[in-house]
Amino acid sequence: FYAIYMRSSLAKRVVTLHPSPHVLDANSTDAKVSPERFWGSYRPQVYFGMKTRSPRSIVTGMMWMRQFSDLDMNLRHTCEQGDRLQGYGWLMHDGLTFGVQEIRDNDFTLTTEFVKRMGGDHGGDWTWRVTAKQHSSAPQAPVISLMFYAAADAQGSLQAHVEERNRLASITGFSEELGNFKITFRKPVTGELSSAKYATYNYLQTVSPGLEKLTDIVKYSLNRRFVYSPPSGEKKHYIGVDTYKPPHHQNQQKPDQRKESDFVVYQVTVQTPFQIEVLFESGSFHDRPNQLVGSIMTQELEKRKAEFDAKFEKAFGLEKKGFSQAYIKFGKAALSNMLGGMGYFFGQSVVQSVYNEYPLLYPEGALFTAVPSRSFFPRGFLWDEGFHQLLLSKWDPQVTREVIAHWIDLMNMEGWIPREQILGDEARSKVPAEFIVQRNENANPPTLFLALQELIEQLSSNPDKAASQPTLHFLRRLFPRLKTWYEWYNTTQTGPLPNSYRWRGRDKDTNLFLNPKTLTSGLDDYPRASHPSADERHVDLHCWMALSSGIMAKVAQLLGEPHEDYQLSHKVLSDNNLLSELHWSEQHRAFSDFGNHTEDVSLQREKVYVPPGQPRHQFPVARLVRSVRRAPKAQHVNALGYVSLFPFLLQILQPDSPKLEHIFRDMRDSNKLWTPYGLRSLSKSDPLYMKRNTEHDAPYWRGPIWININYLAVRALHYYSHTEGPYQEKAAVLYEELRTNIINNVYRQYFEAGYIWEQYNDGTGRGQGSHPFTGWSSLTLLMMAEQY
Ligand code: 6A9
């Protein structure tokens, strides 16, 4: 009985939040406390939409489709790579008051803009303006349907107000966080001053059991019976929202238990070019001077754009550095997409510890965070976020403080934070079931310390005491939890030898991978010891801990808290002799992991026994499995690549360390890490270079160029080139070359292929993987600005 009791109470630990006070007050994101940040484009997973920073926000959004197209179904809503848009993303976005986005569809471009206006008690008003223009290549002006909607999420109500038969003039509504409000749909016009264009109207007023169902509800309501009949042109049938009829096959599924909430869609169908405005007005905003529409909207937009341009130049100084307007435009897009990619998520993770038989639901929680990719992974990732905040802290340190606070407040009593945050139905609907569960042994690089380092540096470089207060106050609230977080790494991720570390979460019981993955390190399939074991030690984690202990010491010191233990850990972990003892391989002349390892592995087709006389096709296709030709033994791992660079990347190496010479040589060697587009993740001469991990698992961190690590490399080169030492000049030369290569390539790919990408091909420089990927790849802007 005791054993059972023990297990269940231990099982609860994983889903029990840490008891120390939250960094954020419970109401910190409420409209009353933080009105300017209440409304925002916090739905990065849709092409265009806004919501408030509240758990069950009313959401607003836009879908669109081209009429009379050969493509039968081209309804666009959530960002999907399968839509094959030529490009989309924010050109300008200040994270606070306005944004300008351009969406390039096949033969037309939609510009989606929003401006907010403060007033009343619920975060004020906003106006959207959508401008559509056909491409010069389009054979004729396309007819487009825009579908603007509002949807409630388990609370609040919406009423449709129809005028002139089918035209939905407005939606009024009420919710806890917004009070009363009104959304008005203006008629399309050609330009700001011109009169209304011919258009047809449809609307849908229905209910939805959850936000992830909105696209399907619209899709299953579409009907071809409507007639488009412009004054000078032929009559044609077009597709419009009608009444919602759930598809039959859904009957088999178990009925949705969730509460149904109001969902109202306004469809306007009109030929390009046109412009259309939608206004949100808060009922509590009484002394509104005028409506934010037409020329007033234009003035407001122009004002915000000018302010944005000025602030951008002040923060990043690209003009002063002599960058051309095209580069500056790219830089603005990089920043704007990271800001415009911020989301506010609410929900529960699904977690698993060794003590529970089945996955458990984590407590409900909120996360305000940037996301790596609006299309493919529009959700929070722990180590991505530290990189994101390196950029955002230069623009708005308040954002960085709030984001770190949200992440740290998600910590459980053990000190663990789930690595990938899949919160809420919408987020979950994008992730296959097998990827949802998060395990509490698993870490992810503590890059939030990089962001904290930046905040601390801002403190010391700013003589204004009053300006330091928000960060000091934040650090004071953060510190108790930060200690626990640091301790969690320092106890659960230790290695076999004193002061060594080991990533958990590698699968040792399989022969299905060429090299079992280390997802927790963030470098997924980067080669590690071939045979995972408790005897491993990982050099990247060692360096992360050296960095983290140093920042812990600094924060403690700033706050007047005991800092000696952190200082001591930092000293030990940064000791170059110890580092070499644990991780330098004389044989490979590189820093390396150590573990039970053999190089002699390959994937081989398994033999399938087919009894004589039986037809071959009745037996399963043989799988690829790993064959090990020579037994593993305890040794340094031969891989050369990003992991080998960590003592340099995180600036643990002393400037006079002779190891720098080897590192610089390998970096500059085109047969190893150097390419004209940045450093490749794994040496071209490595046995696992560009090798698949399984039949279905293409190489990921085994060659391609990743911008987060390249950012760290450029930053480290900058440091070593500004620090006295025998390799100072070499570092300066490498710095110039590497920085230029990366900037030019990411820039070129953006203009040629329409996106900032997840990674870049080491042979051609071409962008590949998810796109847009305006998470850490946007750090290119910091390299342009030379702000490290
Ligand atoms: C799996 C597929 C629709 C992988 O940028 C986020 C992470 C990084 O933290 C990590 O270092 N990416 C990098 O190696 C992307 C991970 C995406 C996992 C999604 C589900 C969804 O299918």
Question: Any overview of this molecule?
Answer:
The protein is an alpha+beta fold. It is 30% helix and 22% strand. The protein contains 17 helices and 33 strands. A hairpin with a 3-residue loop joins strand 5 and strand 6. The longest helix is centred in the middle third of the chain and has 28 residues.
Write the layout of secondary structure elements.
Elements: H1 2-13, E1 39-40, E2 49-52, E3 59-66, E4 87-93, E5 98-104, E6 108-117, E7 125-134, E8 143-151, E9 157-163, E10 167-175, E11 179-185, E12 199-208, H2 214-219, E13 222-228, E14 236-241, E15 261-271, E16 274-282, H3 294-316, H4 325-340, E17 343-347, E18 350-352, E19 360-361, E20 365-369, E21 380-381, H5 382-395, H6 397-408, E22 420-421, H7 424-428, E23 437-439, H8 448-461, H9 465-492, H10 539-558, H11 564-574, H12 576-583, E24 584-585, E25 590-591, E26 594-597, E27 601-605, E28 624-628, E29 633-636, H13 642-649, H14 659-668, E30 674-675, E31 678-679, H15 707-721, H16 728-753, E32 759-760, E33 767-768, H17 780-785
Bound molecules: N-9'-methoxynonyl-1-deoxynojirimycin.
